[in-house]
Write a structure and sequence with these properties.
Helices cover 16% and strands 43% of the residues. With 264 residues, the protein is an alpha+beta fold.
C-alpha cells in the first residue's frame, strides 16, 4: 500500500469526526442553558397569593444504586410564592427555589448486591465532591456560585385537579390533587418537568389561610440532563465519567418536596 499525505490524514479525520459525533450525542442529552427563572405572575386577577414558609419545608432524595445508596436532605431550604385561583386551580402559578448550600448527603454501602447495607452515614469528602459537581464549591467564582446555588421550579399551570373549584368543597380542611407542570432549573440548565401534588387547603370560614403541599410522585432529575458530573475542581472535568461509577452512583435523583405556604 502506497503511503501518501492523504492516507496519513485519514486517522485524524476519523478521530475528529468521532469526537464530534460523541459531543453531539452528549449535547442531545443536556437540557438547554438557562439563567435564573423569572418570578411567577398570577394568571388570573382573583388569584390568592401564598408565601412559602421556609422553616416547614422538607426537600429530600434517595438515589439507589446496586451497592450504594446516596440520600440528600435540604431542610428549611425552600422559598417562593404561589398564585392560586381558588375558582379554577388550573390557572394557578408559582415559583419555588431550593437553596443547595443547605444540601447534606448521606450514604449506605454494601460489598456486593447480596450483602446488607450498612448504616446511613455522612461522608465529608462525598459532600465536597457534590458541591464541586454542582459548581457551588468554595473555589467557584462567586458570580457562578450564586447562579448555581438555587434549584428552581416555575409552575406554569396545574393539570387534572381532582377538584377544579376549591370553593365548592366544604370544611376548614380541603384536599385536592393535581399535577404541576413547568420549568425546572438546575446547574444553569432547564427542562420541563411534571410533579403530582397533594394540596391540603386550610380555611377560616370562606377565607383560605394556608396550603400544605407535598409531592405524591417525585420529580425525576437526571444528573446528565443537568450536566451534574464528576469534576476535580471548578472548570476542570474529572477523567472518570459518571457512567464509570457503575453500580455505585445512580443516574437519577427522585426529588421529594413538602412545605406549607401561608396566604398573604
Amino acid at each position: 500500500m502506497k503511503i501518501t499525505p492523504q492516507t496519513l490524514l485519514i486517522p485524524l479525520f476519523v478521530a475528529t469526526f468521532g469526537a464530534l459525533a460523541c459531543e453531539e450525542k452528549k449535547s442531545e442529552n443536556l437540557a438547554p442553558v438557562a439563567s435564573a427563572l423569572e418570578p411567577a405572575k398570577p394568571a388570573a386577577p382573583q388569584s390568592v397569593s401564598f408565601s412559602v414558609d421556609a422553616a416547614s419545608s422538607k426537600v429530600a432524595f434517595l438515589m439507589e444504586a446496586p451497592v450504594e445508596k446516596i440520600s440528600g436532605d435540604v431542610p428549611g431550604s425552600l422559598e417562593g410564592e404561589l398564585f392560586v385561583d381558588l375558582g379554577d386551580l388550573t390557572k394557578s402559578t408559582g415559583l419555588v427555589k431550593v437553596d443547595l448550600d443547605k444540601l447534606t448527603l448521606y450514604q449506605e454501602k454494601r460489598d456486593d448486591e447480596k450483602g446488607q447495607f450498612g448504616e446511613r452515614k455522612k461522608n465529608d469528602m462525598q459532600n465536597q465532591h457534590a458541591r464541586t459537581w454542582l459548581e457551588i464549591s468554595s473555589d467557584t467564582p462567586e458570580e457562578t456560585k450564586q447562579l448555581n446555588r438555587f434549584a428552581e421550579f416555575r409552575i406554569a399551570r396545574l393539570e387534572a385537579p381532582s377538584q377544579t373549584d376549591i370553593r365548592t368543597l366544604m370544611g376548614n380542611e380541603r384536599t385536592v390533587t393535581a399535577t404541576a407542570i413547568g420549568d425546572f432549573r438546575l446547574h444553569g440548565r432547564k427542562s420541563e418537568k411534571r410533579a403530582k401534588l397533594e394540596m391540603v387547603f386550610q380555611f377560616a370560614g370562606d377565607k383560605p389561610t394556608s396550603i400544605r403541599i407535598r409531592t405524591v410522585e417525585p420529580l425525576l432529575i437526571g444528573l446528565e440532563e443537568f450536566d451534574v458530573r464528576p469534576r476535580e475542581a471548578f472548570g476542570k472535568l474529572a477523567q472518570k465519567t459518571l457512567s464509570a461509577f457503575g453500580s455505585k452512583v445512580a443516574q437519577t435523583a427522585p426529588l421529594q418536596i413538602e412545605f406549607t405556604a401561608n396566604a398573604k
